[in-house]
Amino acid sequence: MTARKSGFIVGAVAGAGVAAAALAGVGMRMGTAGAAEAQQPVRVAMAGTPAFAPPPGAPMSFADIFEKVSPAVVQINVTSKASQPTLRIPGLEGFDIVPRGRKPGQGQGQEDGEGEAPTGPKQQSAGSGFLISADGYIVTNNHVVAEADDIQVVLKDGRELKATLVGRDEGTDLAVVKVVDPKAKGSDFPYVNFENQAKPRVGDWVITIGNPFGLGGTATAGIISAYNRDLGDNTSSFVNYIQIDAPINRGNSGGPSFDIYGRVIGVNSAIYSPSGGSVGIGFAIPADIAEATVKQLISGGKVVRGYIGVTIQDFSAEMAEAQGIPNVKGAIVAELVPGGPGAKAGLLPDDILTAVNGQAVTNRSELTREVAKARPGENIRMSVLRDGKPRTIDVKSGTRPAEGQLGLADDDQDKDGGAAPTPDKPASQSIAALGLSLGPIDAASRQTYKIDSEVKGLLITAVKGDSDAGEKGLAKGDVLSSINGSAVNTTAEVNAAVASAKKAGRTSVLVKVIRQNRPVFVPLKIAP
Questions:
Q1: Which of 304, 311, 368 is nearest to 338 (CA)?
Q2: Read out DSSP for 319-351?
Q3: Active site residue 508
Q4: pLDDT in tens, 25-55
Q5: Ranges 79-88, 126-135, 328-337, 406-415: which has the least confidence
Q6: Burial 340-354 (b: 16+ CB within 10 A, else e)
Q7: Between residues 226 and 418, which one has the greater pLDDT?
Q8: Which of 222, 266, 349, 484 is placed for a possible disulfide with 284 were both Cys, Cβ 3.0 to 4.6 Å?
């Protein structure tokens, strides 16, 4: 680790030296040719005019930019009800996984820069935000102000002003608050603008300003590291994050990332950090997504999205190979909301969705974003692959429920913790090709594993640890429901499905597994 850090420092210094020499028109050739040759300038061939050239002196100092934009950046102090600890994605700071019965934003006093967990009924937390209008509208993260009882913003000039929540959106982790303090009456607040046109490239400078660990008014700089990052959480269905390496920490949540012209290119939202501090991997919500969301929040207090009522998974390359359609990408339907728009339109489990309104989709996040663009009541044209044959299905869009309401279904299973009786082991048969032992689902199994009466298939009674099934997490108590789209209720049907796949020259099969009464698709390699 020390060697890597040293390498980065040396590389940065060397790069700066070369840049300075080039600007001065002074260079040196390596070799034995003598002083006259050494004094000749080094000429660097440029492949065209830079598309995003910095203003003169930008790499040398960011002071002018900071002085220009920092008055629009605020510290946000929040008071809310104390509750039990929230669960976090390991290493990913800035997002909460909210258990059933817990409201978003309730935590143990470790949210974005605050101190030790409070012992009283209230807790305080701090984040960042930035003004986008002269009359006091402020953008921040949803997780900074969710369920806040009191919001106070602190300006660069030290003024502490009361603010109120205008609207928030769990789907993008964005929120808008507005200054309502009587002391601010008539104020003409400094503000900044979103930049949606001149998109910086990977490698271009980025500057962040925020409130890390409650310190306030802190500027850091770095570069754009990558675009289109998926964090693997609920917000990634609507946000393709910008990755930046400018140091940001707890408390920077909701603060702006600027380009070298002082325009907002992103809203800082999360960091990847095994230690809890900055390791140079931060994530910002892109300006175009943020601006569109903020406009809806200001106009109506919430974001309205299209909805078709399906649970989907990425249709991976491995799944496609198992189905014998190697070039197909999209999302596969695991289940449908009863009576929902998709079910009414005729979508079915196992359908592979490949495009929305003519726009190709390669994964579930892209599909969700395209569907979300529709207004409730609008027609959504879905391109579907069913039983290997393409078809088009028109779905009348519904209104997407709040993300918290969508997540409740995942926790509907009985979790009373009581010890269930151990059933007699049902008669099972080993399927060596899949590394599974399978048996019928009897009454005792349904009670033990809480399997709903409508669930059909074969109970997995054992999994070979070194098999593909074992490596992919299949476990005793799961239900094998189908193979390559065909329902299986006997081991003979399983063997027949595997034999059919082998005959077709396939090396894997796509199985549907029911776990805790929810379907999931898993491609399994066929053992020789």
A1: 311
A2: HHHHHT-TT--EEEEEEE-TTSHHHHHT--TT-
A3: no
A4: 333 333 333 444 444 444 444 455 555 566 6
A5: 406-415
A6: bbbbbbebebbbbbb
A7: 226
A8: 266
Tokens of 208: 């962040």
C-alpha to C-alpha distance for 313 and 246, rounded to whole angstroms: 33
Residue percentage of the chain with pLDDT more than 70:
76
Q: Is 125 a catalytic residue?
A: no
Annotated active-site residue in 96, 169, 173, 350 = 173
The 10s digit of each residue's pLDDT in 232-261 is 777 778 888 999 998 888 888 899 999 988
User: In angstroms, rounded to a whole number, what is the distance separating the alpha carbons of residues 169 and 149?
Assistant: 17
SS3 category, 490: coil
* Model confidence band, residue 280 (pLDDT cutoffs 50, 70, 90): confident
Cβ atoms of residues 455 and 482 within 8 Å = no
In angstroms, rounded to a whole number, what is the distance separating the alpha carbons of residues 76 and 303?
Answer: 22
- The verdict on whether 424 is a catalytic residue reads no
Distance of alpha carbon 233 from alpha carbon 92, whole angstroms: 10
Q: Retrieve residue 125's tokens.
A: 């937390």
The helix/strand/coil state of 150 is strand
Yes or no: say if 321 and 506 are a contact pair by the CB < 8 Å rule. Answer: yes
Q: What is the DSSP string of 76-135?
A: EEEEEE--SPPB--TTEET--B--TT--TT--SS-STT--SPPSSSEEEEEEEEEE-STT
pLDDT of 459 reads 94
List the catalytic residue out of 80, 253, 257, 482. Answer: 253
Q: Which domains does the chain have, with CATH numbers?
A: 56-301 (2.40.10.120), 306-409 (2.30.42.10), 429-525 (2.30.42.10)
The partner residues of 78 in beta bridges, in order of sequence, read 125, 151
Q: Where are the alpha helices (DSSP H) in 280-393?
A: 287-300, 317-323, 341-345, 364-372
Q: Closest Cα to residue 395, out of 351, 347, 355, 345?
A: 345
CA gap 93, 111 in Å, rounded: 9
Catalytically annotated residue among 143, 350, 478, 508: 143
Q: Work out the widest C-alpha separation in the chain, in whole angstroms.
A: 93
Phi-psi region of 291 (alpha: psi -120 to 50; beta: other; left: phi over 0): alpha
Please choose, from the candidates 256, 260, 252, 265, the residue with its C-alpha nearest in 3D space to the C-alpha of residue 216.
Answer: 252
Mapping DSSP onto H, E and C, the string for 408-472 reads HHHHCCCCCCCCCCCCCCCCCEEECCCCEEEECCCHHHHHHHCCCCCCCCEEEEEECCCCHHHHC
* β-bridge partners, 224: 244
Which segment, 353-367, 401-415, 435-449, is predicted with the most confidence on average? 353-367
Q: What span, in angstroms and rounded, lies between the C-alpha atoms of 426 and 217? A: 65
CB 291 within 8 A of CB 172: no
How many separate helices (H) and strands (E) can be counted in the chain?
12, 28
